[in-house]
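Consider this record:
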Amino acid sequence: MRRDSIFYKLFQQSPSLLFELLTNPPANADEYRFDSVAVKEPKFEIDGIFLPPESENPGVVYFCEVQFQKDERLYERVFAESWLYFYRNRDRFSDWQIVIIYPSRNLEQSHLHPHRAFLNSDQVFRLYLDELGDIRSLPVWVALMVLTTLDEEQTPQEARYILAKSQQETPQPENRAIIELLTTIMVYKFEDKSQREVEEMLGITLKETRVYREIKEEGREEGREQGEKSLVLRQLSRRVGELPQFVRSRVESLCLEQLENLGEALLDFQGMADLEAWLNRL
């Protein structure tokens, strides 16, 4: 399941969602703007950055990382990325905060001792989605985040509950945005299901939603292909290091189906040789 793109859409649609998860959010949380940035020389990719309003200068910048797989160098990378960005933009910001979102504690890196000062400070927040409480008691936007972590048996009933709750409590057009994200999660989570089967799970007609048109209709594949390409390139850079130009060009030439297959395969890569071997098998 491609959770990076789902969480990107969640934060893009509702930047204040991040601050709903924090104990002490900034007073102007509703004014923050979400973005994703690249820091070059060396090239780093930051999952999400929450920028304070321009009227608050300097303001506090929030860095966010969503981590759904074990990475024993996660904190080294996240701190390096964030500090480098903060250094290069020091005049714009008065302070920084880092938020790491895990599905559960068992995916956190094992060796924490070198980072104890920051991990135990008030500048770094570690959030575990499975510890937020009953999904039905959570705000709708937060519940959507937790929905991505549930097993396939539990997901349909909780998805229907979130849908009903959104229709009762959320005004338009926000409700439409929630439905689009909910169907995005379901289509990605149940890729082996037919349209009819997913419709029966939710009790709605997917062909009426934007996500189904974008994901399933061949005429709308171009935008999805570009998004998948960017996501795979970013994941590869993290997994095997900076890509040589000829390797990057080969990845960029892949079709959508190949990009999706690569997105699954790269989770097992140990280095550049594994990527090159995979490409040579095409």
Remarks:
- The two ends are 23 Å apart (CA to CA).
- The CA atoms of residues 19 and 25 lie 5 Å apart.
- The chain has a mean pLDDT of 85.
- The chain has 13 helices and five strands.
